[in-house]
Amino acid sequence: MTSSHFIIGWAVYLAGATGCLLALMLITGRLPVRFKRALRFTTAALLYTPWWLSPGSNLLSPALFTMAYDGLTDGIEGMARTGLITVIAAGSAALIAIILPVKKSKAGKEKEENTPATAGHRKKPKRQEPIC
Question: CA-to-CA distance for 7 and 54, rounded, in angstroms?
């Protein structure tokens, strides 16, 4: 395999991973904000983290797939080589996602604007039409 094939393979993989991440964003749209963000960040970290193809190689591959392949061919020892960086990347992404502050929703801001700032502030009474 030449380097141009390797680059084309990475381009196809990145396009597919981006499509999967966009689909995940559509699917998780109605979940709570912190859970949704943690799920999206962790998935992005798992999909986009590269790692060395083999110990002496200068080629990179997706760490998640390298971990799975090494686990199938070399056993637990080979899987631990790539699994450590995969767990660190996913864990740090989830931690960052959980720590980030959550903005108040627009509905909450509208409620705060409609409530009077001081206790002595009176609301203007609504005009009622006479009923016949």
Answer: 17
Residue 110 lies in a domain: no
Q: What is the pLDDT of residues 89-111, one digit of tens each?
A: 999 999 999 999 988 766 655 55
On whether residue 82 sits in a domain, the answer given is yes
Say which residues have a Cβ less than 8 Å from residue 37's Cβ, sequence separation at least 6. Answer: 97, 98, 100
- In one letter, which amino acid is 16? G
SS3 62: strand
Radius of gyration for the chain, computed over Cα atoms and rounded to the nearest angstrom: 25
**Total domains, the chain:** 1
Domain of 8? Answer: 3-102
- pTM to 2 decimal places: 0.73
